[in-house]
Every structure is written in structure tokens, then in C-alpha cells.
Design brief:
single chain, two-stranded antiparallel sheet, two-stranded antiparallel ribbon, 6 helices, 4 strands
């Protein structure tokens, strides 16, 4: 966990004062990794539409409205993802944003100059390729493992010439012995999935804490976050 203390109005974040570590189970880790593509699609769509259009139309002033709307939507999506992380993995990430002052011009300046806004944007943009890779990798790992491990239960249901093919057209499973070999390999793949999938989820959570959480260095006391930093709990 990360300890936070206040000194003269400043928030000091001290890392790793408690040795509790994140250990998500394979089911929760799988659900989290499979769902990340949703945030990736939303984030990629928002970044690639609102920000370029806003920058191109800044000269007409309407671009400011479009750009600010896009950044606020990205902030909202990032906050939903923080909640999603806490729901699935038990990871709490404090809001890192600066408190919005009064006045439209001051609010606009704060939004555009807050580094947390742009870290949210970069994170959600990266979530598209990362989420796609996680979706494909996790689906293949569990799918191949389950399909091969249960091969003895259904290999005999196929007609002659339609038997299951494993990795290569010449490797056709048409005997019980071959099905048992496939089952043993499938069980090994499932054991690997039980270890690998939570490890990937843990790595993603740490990356999210780094990108979406408050900075580890001393921050000014004008952040929206409470005196509770991003922590793996």
C-alpha cells in the first residue's frame, strides 16, 4: 500500500510502506482482462474524434468547446475505469485531478494544463491495443485449454473425416488414446492460464495505478483526491 501524509499543506506520498500485494483470482482476472477492450474502444473513439476535430477548429472557437468536452468525457471514462479496477481487482486509485477554480477561463486553463488529464488520454488510447491483445490472449488460452482438456468427452461425436484437428491438419484426434493425450496437454494449458492470467491482470493494475493515480512525488494540496493515494488493497 502507499502511505500519504500532509505536511504544511502538501501531500507526501510514500510508497510500499505495507507489504500487502495484489493477488486477483483467475476468474476475476479473466473478467477484468476480457472487459478492457470496451474501455479501449470508447477511449480510442473519443481521442480520435474529439481531440483532432477540436484542434483543427480552434481558430473558430468552437474547437475549444469540442476539445474541452472530449477531455471531460475522457476524464469520466478514466474514472469509470478506476471504479472498474476496484470492483474486479480491489485496486483503489485516488482521483489525481486539480480542483477546478471559479471562472470559465480559469477552469479551461486548469483542465488543459493538468497533467492528469493528458495521462488519462494516453492511457485510454493505449487501452485499445492493450485490450485487444488481452482479449485475444486470454480467450485463446482458456479456449484451447478447455477444448483440449475435455477432448475425451466429445471426440467420438464427429463423423469420419470431420474429427477434431489440433494445431495441424495432419494431427487428427480419432482414438481415445489421442484424446487423452490432448486432455493432458489441455490440463497443462489450464494450469498455465491459472498462473498467467492473474499475473497479467496484476501487471495491468500496476500500469493503471501509474497512469491514472496521483504522482508519487510531492504534490500541491489543490488536488481533488483525498489523502488516500493509489493503493493495491
Amino acid at each position: 500500500m502507499i502511505e500519504v501524509s500532509r505536511t504544511n499543506g502538501e501531500i507526501v506520498i510514500m510508497a510500499d510502506v505495507e507489504s500487502r500485494t495484489l493477488q486477483p483470482g483467475p476468474i476475476r482476472a479473466t473478467g477484468f482482462l476480457l472487459s478492457n477492450i470496451v474501455f479501449g474502444v470508447i477511449g480510442f473513439g473519443l481521442v480520435m474524434t474529439t481531440i483532432p476535430f477540436g484542434l483543427l477548429t480552434l481558430v473558430f472557437w468552437v474547437g475549444i468547446l469540442v476539445l474541452c468536452t472530449g477531455l471531460l468525457l475522457l476524464r469520466g471514462a478514466a474514472q469509470v475505469h478506476r471504479t472498474w479496477l476496484h470492483t474486479w481487482l480491489g485496486v483503489y486509485i485516488a482521483r489525481p485531478y486539480r480542483v477546478m477554480p471559479t471562472g470559465a477561463a480559469a477552469r479551461l486553463r486548469t483542465l488543459l494544463t493538468d497533467g492528469a488529464t493528458w495521462k488519462d488520454t494516453i492511457y485510454l488510447l493505449l487501452m485499445f491495443p492493450i485490450g485487444m491483445a488481452e482479449l485475444i490472449g486470454v480467450s485463446m488460452l482458456w479456449g484451447i485449454g478447455l477444448g483440449m482438456s475435455t477432448m475425451p468427452l466429445y471426440y467420438g461425436l464427429f463423423d469420419k473425416g470431420d474429427e477434431p484437428q489440433i494445431f495441424h491438419p495432419d494431427f487428427v484426434v480419432d482414438t481415445f488414446g489421442e484424446a487423452m493425450i490432448c486432455s493432458a496437454v489441455g490440463l497443462l494449458i489450464l494450469c498455465m492460464a491459472i498462473i498467467v492470467v492473474p499475473a497479467v491482470a496484476k501487471a495491468h493494475a500496476k500500469f493503471a495505478v501509474w497512469m491514472l493515480g496521483p504522482s508519487r512525488k510531492i504534490m500541491n494540496g489543490d488536488r481533488e483526491s483525498t489523502p488516500r493515494a493509489a493503493a493495491l488493497v
